[in-house]
Amino acid sequence: MTPAVVGAPRAVQSSPQEPSGREQPAPLDDRARIARFDRPTRLLHVVIMVTFLGLSATGMPLLFSEAPWARLLAALFGGFRGAGLVHRFFGATLLAAVAWHVGNVFYRAFARGEKGLFWGPTSMVPQPRDLADLYRQMQWFAGLGPRPRFEHFAYWEKFDYWAVLWGTALMGAAGLVLWFPVAASRLLPGWMFNVALFVHGAEASLAIGFIFVVHFFNGHLRPGKFPMDLVIFSGSVAAGALREERAAEYARLERTGAIASLVVPPPDPRLLRRGRIVGTIGLVLGLALVSLIVYAVAR
Amino acid sequence: MSIRSIRFGLLVAAACLGSGIAAAGQPAPASPATSEDCLACHGDADAKRPDGRSMAIDAARFGTSIHAAIACADCHADAGRELPHPDRLAKVACGSCHDEVAGKYHDSMHAWAKEKAGLVGAPSCADCHGTHDITPHTERTSRVYRDRVPATCGGCHAGVREKYDAGVHGAALKKGASNAPVCVDCHTTHAITRTDTDAWRLRVTGECGMCHAKVVESFRLTFHGKVTELGSARVAACADCHGAHDILPAANRASMVSKARLVETCGRCHQGATEKFVQYDPHPNPSDYSRGAVLWWANRFYWLLIPGCFGFFGLHSALWYWRSRRDGGRS
User: In angstroms, what separates the C-alpha of B188 from chain A's closest C-alpha?
Assistant: First the structure.
């Protein structure tokens, strides 16, 4: 398995430009599996999933403390104190996971000299082509053009990624200030606790709403993906689906010949089943939590 | 004619009827003693018990009390059977008419002290309400009239009364502020409980909010307020920072929330709190720029960011769904 946390699998970047005139390989079968997410990336997604759900469920009683379900939800974790402990545990885990990820990206970029992480078709960094893709997507929505030919990461996926990174950093910082107020007050004035609590709550509302509605729809629930896209669990995608969804990437992989090195065996059915179970639980819990918020706000 | 007096009338009628029925089967007293019979002895201002204590009843004063219409024997039931009655009579059972109030009293700290802990000085009805001179609590002459409540409770709780008189609430009452809280507003009247329980701590915040609604609303925005709302009494609520009986304005140096004492007050929970730490605003208002500029800007920012994000991606998702359906369910 090739690492592809932010960039494309290493095999792609390290493959030299194809010499012209080389014989093109036969087109792949639509059902052939192409590697997309390596094992650490998939694991990172599961860790984020579990911690994010846990953080939401244990933080919401406090954020919506006046909602009729607040005490009940907290009681699931042993009341306010239990919920607070679980919240801190998940928070620390998520911070550690994201810190590991960021460290890993820099390690790959600078220690191992991996190319394409910070710019180029396989990078997570927003680039001019993302604006163009967004514009073309709008045209497609309006019926004024064909579906854009996406690269390795589409603009909404980049938005998701940076939202998680930014949100974790900001909420993590605010969370630590609230966790260790006396220590924090050596560096910051006390009114920063007010700001930290507000930002932690506002960013949480944004994150919960975004992940459990927008990310769920874009990644899993929209027509064509419903009820969920298993690629984040299986790590590979069918060649036919890749050709249709990420035409630019597929063309590039064919052009460079890298596609051959990305073909992987079909995923273990047990892995798929596990993914389906974990994914379903995540979707159901996330939608349940967002319903609680809608209920609290609409009341 | 209030509901209470109607109810009382019915009770008296029922009592008469009941005693009539009982009389049919049992050897009845020669004739039930009337109040005039009682006053024949007790009406004499110099009337004394065998031990020398006065047993005089001021009939005129009793006539102005709320119980004026009741006969002596209605309360002193064991005095009316035979005259002269025994030296020692049973304690008057107010609860035989005021059963609801008696129930509350029975569960109270006062009743516990008196009946279970054996604290003979603990009050029962008459200690607060008086005896033959009871008037409604709405009348200035009543011992439980609002303005007189601190004096009545202070009869036993002298130290607390001293603190109360020194605090803002006592001062306001003295100035004649009719809405200034007296003892019973926070502690209730008959159902007075311990003040060191979680239930009490959680309830009293709402009590402060009855007058200080805006202040409690801002408290609810804080971690302290939210945890309190969740039913945990482990964090600071009103009295933990402001004190209880001796609440003083922040401008007063002696106040727990004065600049001079904030580090000490916050430090009671947050060991190691410093001058910097106490710059925390325990009553924030994100829409008040003067209370905190950064919080105001953060509030502004998120009020743009959150609707902006959900608006954009909501529309994005809706359009995507619509386009996908039109294109035959493909992504």
Answer: 25
Interface residue of B230, B283, B300, B319 to substitute, partner A, most A CBs within 10 Å: B230
Q: Do A224 and B324 touch (CB under 8 A)?
A: yes
Token look-up 């009490």 returns: B200
pLDDT digits (tens, 9 = 90+) for A108-118: 999 999 999 99
Q: In what order do the strands lie in the sheet with A236-238?
A: A236-238, A33-35, A263-264
Task: Please answer yes or no on whether B331 and A222 come within 8 Å at the CB atom.
Answer: yes
Alpha-carbon distances, residue A24 vs A12, A15, A17, A30, A35 (angstroms): 17, 15, 13, 17, 20
Q: Where are the domains of chain B?
A: 3-90, 103-182, 198-279, 293-326
B106, pLDDT greater than 90: yes
A194 part of contact set with chain B, CB < 8 Å: yes
Q: How far apart, in Å, are the Cα atoms of A75 and each of A68, A83, A84, A91, B199?
A: 13, 8, 11, 19, 17
CATH of domain A35-125+162-240+254-298: 1.20.950
The pLDDT value given to residue A172: 97
